[in-house]
Design a protein that fits this description.
The chain has 250 residues and is an alpha/beta fold. The chain is built from twelve helices and ten strands. Helix content is 45%, strand content 19%. It catalyses: L-glutamate = D-glutamate.
Length: 250
């Protein structure tokens, strides 16, 4: 049985975990740092420190390989984590690039400040095909989602601002460059005034793994106990799971 570690700064990676667990058989161990979310506006050295702490915790479960279900960690720390832990790390941002290359036309990459500042998605796609990737740091979305605003006027107002380049230029593709964003995919679609493909790298990754053993276990660990978080996890997850908090672990 394969043991897969999945980690993120908060709830966003739960959407990745759900897609992985729906389509693959493995023991999944997820750690979400909802105590210190969001990571996207933090300095690189602080993000690196947090990432090391998350993986160090998950190492106790004899992990075979890791999914970095956080684009911010992916673009700032992936190589450092590989060197430090000597294990395989699959970065969700690389999956975003791979998935996007299957679509024609230009793109809007929606992501956190750290991911956009790296220009990782833009540079990788534009190096491989004749297309333009417009970038938008969607600063408010993670906070809104973590607070449970998966719809409503505040979210719509923010989305109209962040989707302006896509609507103005009638872009063909929207890249979800933060794992929180699939949670509001319907609201993104609603606030588009053009026809666009919404590219969710978690779906692409889940199909690519293709693990079939007939058994699975899904263990979720969060760094902060929260009734709101519990409700949102229950809304997102479509498979059975066990929820734990770090304070409960000795």
């Amino acid at each position: 049985m394969t043991n897969i570690g999945v980690f993120d700064s908060g709830l966003g990676g739960i959407a990745v975990l759900n897609e992985l667990a729906k389509k693959n058989d493995a023991n999944f161990y997820y750690l979400g740092d909802n105590l210190r979310v969001p990571y996207g506006n933090r300095p690189k050295e602080e993000i690196k420190k947090f990432a090391i702490e998350l993986v160090t915790f998950l190492e106790r479960f004899d992990i075979d390989f890791y999914i970095i279900a956080c684009n911010t960690i992916s673009v700032t720390c992936k190589d450092y984590l590989i060197e430090h832990f000597k294990k395989k790390f699959i970065a969700i941002t690389d999956m975003a690039v791979e998935a996007s290359l299957e679509y024609e036309g230009d793109y809007l990459a929606l992501a956190t400040k750290a991911t956009i500042s790296s220009h990782y998605i833009k540079n990788k796609i534009e190096a491989k095909k004749d297309a333009t990737v417009y970038e938008m740091a969607a600063l408010k979305l993670v906070d809104l989602i973590e607070e449970g605003y998966l719809e409503g006027p505040d979210l719509d107002e923010a989305l109209r601002e962040y989707l302006y380049p896509a609507n103005d230029k009638a872009l063909e593709n929207i890249i979800l460059g933060c794992t929180h964003y699939p949670l509001i995919k319907d609201q993104i679609q609603k606030n588009l005034t053009c026809q666009a493909n919404i590219i969710d790298p978690a779906i692409y990754l889940a199909d690519k793994l293709d693990l079939r053993s007939g058994e699975k276990g899904v263990n979720i660990f969060m760094t902060k106990k929260s009734a709101k978080t519990e409700r949102l996890i229950d809304q997102i997850m479509e498979v059975d799971y066990k929820l734990n908090y770090l304070g409960d672990i000795k």
